[in-house]
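2 proteins. here.
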Amino acid sequence: MKAVILAGGKGTRLRPYTAAFPKPLMPIGDKPILEIIVRQLKSHGIDEIIMAVGHLAELIMTFFGDGSKFGVKIKYSREDEPLGTAGPLSLLKDELKETFLVMNGDVLSTINYSDLIKYHKENGAIATVALNRRSVYIDFGVVKIDESKTIVDYIEKPTLDYLVSMGIYVFEPEVLNYIPNKKFDFPDLVKTLMSAGKTVKGYVYDGYWLDIGRPDDYERANAEIDKIYSELFR
């Protein structure tokens, strides 16, 4: 099975670190986050990886090479102009002929990729999105009004619960028919698939997950990596 890792972003939220260093090579503990991901995928039997690169691509390509030192085969797909999160897949139609996994190159999670793929296949979906629960605390009184501006509800400092995308997906090759060769993001793709009447499933994972794109989450990942390290590889 093949996996596509999106590793072409500029990492603007992590500046100044990423001004001269690609975000996927930012170290978590003693390894770059992208190396952790590659080793995770290998532990789940995914040994063919395509890295969609852009910003500072040469550094990523030099570090990983053909993947042989990690026990995998790595190819690279380089976009000439930013294509968003889903757009880079439009360049890979000749490579992705079977069920494939796609993920961001800055995700630190103990998710079981084998279970995710199994869930996707058992449900006959064209696409499956890995989801994580997040709660947002609102430090204000939230007021609801009707069309006449009459207050109909007043909630003091509520906590709102959401399911958020983890930046990890499993797709069938058919999804590539819905991705244009231009800037196109995953929310656009999911909405397009739903409008076309296709089955899109959510895989809810309540375990550890961080997107290290923000300084506070990056620092948290480094503080917690030793605690979760043994859970990363199954």
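next one coming up
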Amino acid sequence: MGINWQGNSMNKCFHDLQYTYATRQFEQGGDVLTVSKLLGHRNVNTTIDTYVHILDDLKEVLKKKL
């Protein structure tokens, strides 16, 4: 079932919102461990590999901080 926005189906699911949330948090300098915990991930690498793949430069910086 898609999410409707102003009556128009955007064909989005909850995971799309979660992905957007995580990506925006990282773009704004969010701490990877905090975002990972908020998303319910047991391993921060899951968060990095799943939600930051479009931000390759940021991904490398985050991995170096671990």
